[in-house]
Amino acid sequence: QLQLVESGGGLVQPGGSLRLSCAASGFTLDNYAIGWFRQAPGKEREGVSCISSSGGSTNYLDSVKGRFTISRDNAKNTVYLQMNSLKPEDTAVYYCAAEGAEGVRDITTLQVMCVMMVNEYDNWGQGTQVTVAS
Predict the structure, then answer these.
(1) Which end of the chain has fewer CB atoms surrounding its CB within 10 Å, N or C?
(2) Taken in order 73, 76, 81, 85, is the CA torsion positive or negative?
(3) Closest to 50 measured CA to CA, from 132, 131, 105, 130
(4) Strand 68-73 relative to strand 58-60: parallel, antiparallel, unpaired?
(5) Helix (H/G/I), strand (E/B), else coil: 64
(6) What is the pLDDT along the chain (134 residues), one digit of tens a residue?
(7) CA 121 – CA 130 distance, rounded (Å)
(8) What pLDDT is recorded for position 131?
(9) pLDDT for the residue 1
(10) What integer pLDDT is reported at residue 104 of this predicted model?
(11) Strand 18-25, strand 33-39: pairing
């Protein structure tokens, strides 16, 4: 059974940092593009960042560019989201999700691109809360 588990969330002061982890079990992440999404209370889920299966292509939400960095370690079957200079508006539940070749893109395409569209991802974690407050 495919399972993604997020960890690393918590309470941090503005300007602080957190590193989120997304660990996979039941499958290997090698052929999956991974996205990080977040959902704040009363708001729709939005894409924050994504990384292609090879790690060679990444995308970021404009508001997090220069502050967040996505990376992956396929040997550890884990994807990370390093979040620096956190702001109160970053407060949300953060989810990771995996897009595989069973979707609209084939294995070769997933190696070179990723998208931050909620409906393109079929496999989701349970989420981890990030709260930025003083």
Answers:
(1) N
(2) negative
(3) 105
(4) unpaired
(5) helix
(6) 789 999 999 999 999 999 999 999 988 999 999 999 999 999 999 999 999 999 999 999 999 999 999 999 999 999 999 999 999 999 999 999 999 888 888 888 999 999 999 999 989 999 999 999 99
(7) 22
(8) 98
(9) 74
(10) 83
(11) unpaired
What gap in Å lies between CA 48 and CA 6, rounded to an integer?
15
CA-nearest of 31, 29, 38 to 132 is 38
**What H or E segment, with its residue span, contains residue 42?**
none
Beta bridge partners of 5: 23
Pick the closest to residue 98 from 68, 78, 82 (CA basis): 78
CA-nearest of 69, 83, 90 to 132 is: 90
Residue 38 to residues 6, 97, 120: CA-CA distances in angstroms? 12, 11, 15
**Residue 5: left if φ>0, alpha if ψ -120 to 50, beta else—which one?**
beta
Nearest by Cα to 37 from 70, 84, 74? 70
Could you give the strand order of the β-sheet that contains 78-83, starting from the edge strand earlier in sequence? 3-7, 18-25, 78-83, 68-73
DSSP state of 110: H
Joined tokens for residue 94: 């953060």
